[in-house]
Amino acid sequence: MAYGAWHWGDLAAVVDALPFGPQPAYALPAVETLSAEAPAEGYAVFGSDDLVRHLERELMAHTARIDVTDWVRLDDDFDAVWDAWDEAVAQNPYLYVDTGHAYRVPGRVELRPTYTYSARESERRRALTVSAARAGLAAAGVAEAPDDAAKVGLIYDYIAAVAEYDDDAAEEIEQDISSGLVDHSQEAYAILVDGYAVCAGYSKAFIAMAHEAGLEAVEVTGSDTAGRYGGSHAWNKVRVDGRWLLVDITWDDNGAYAGDDYLLLRDDADILDTRTADEFWMTDARLTDYRG
């Protein structure tokens, strides 16, 4: 599922475009300075249970037929498999997969994914995304932040400075068009390496940077009627001082800098009255764990 949304006003965009408007505090790292090698410790998995983590590892390995026999005994168990699939795709910024189908074959049950890119291209994007996330944290001075809230603020500022909203991809999403542009717009890579995406790209970039900074963060999907398209949207929750708080860098990206309208909000904040989360971003058993 592709998510595209828009919020900030036309006036702010015009002001930022003027030569005397605010200038970004940070710039994207040059691609030639990034590492195309996998991190020595491997790539993170984010799943809330063993099945989700199994799917993440197999999808990153570009496995053509993923064995899920241990989790499927009855036909009803397929619901749990697809529930785990949805979480894996939502929460892991290093997966590049379009769809999947389930099959019963002699002696086993397997999922057969359709991948967005070749195994080689997927690996290249993964490695560059990790490297770019680490470069961004260094540029923003996140390691020197005094507490987790300050870390979140610095990551927020960095993403706002280097990212632009991909209006062309959002228009294609609104028209239900499938394209390479839409695929790209859903990726952390699109923000941290290329500098443009829609809300799903922003939220996955936040997860990638938050994880590297030692923060717990998740992507949340749903809808918000206040958006330009009045429909699907993606944002984040991050754990600060033991509480899951909402952040939405897409809607706080004022061009060269980040606003704070959607920074570290509790669930009962008035500004969120138009917002509804769906159930696809986390397994059903864990959805209530992220209330804030």
Protein architecture, described:
- This protein is an alpha+beta fold and 292 residues long.
- Helix content is 38%, strand content 17%.
- It is built from ten helices and ten strands.
- Strands 9-8-7-6-10 form a five-stranded antiparallel sheet.
- β7 and β8 (243-247) form a beta hairpin.
- α4 crosses α9, α5 crosses α9 and α8 (188-194) packs across α9 (199-212).
- The radius of gyration is 19 Å and the shape is globular.
- It starts with 9 loop residues before the first helix and ends in a 15-residue tail after the last strand.
Count of DSSP strands: 10
Structural class given helices, strands, pairing?
Answer: alpha+beta
Spans of at least 5 consecutive residues whose pLDDT stays below 50 are: 5-11
The multimeric state of the shown protein is single chain
Content of β-strand: 15-25%
Query: Per the principal axes of the C-alpha atoms, what is the gross shape?
Result: globular
Strand order of the largest sheet: 9-8-7-6-10
Number of helical elements? 10
End-to-end distance: 25 Å
Please tell me the overall pLDDT: 92
Please give the largest β-sheet.
5 strands, antiparallel
Rg estimate, integer Å = 19 Å
Helical content band: 25-40%
- What is the string of SSEs from the N terminus onward? HHEHEEHHEHHHEHEEEHEE
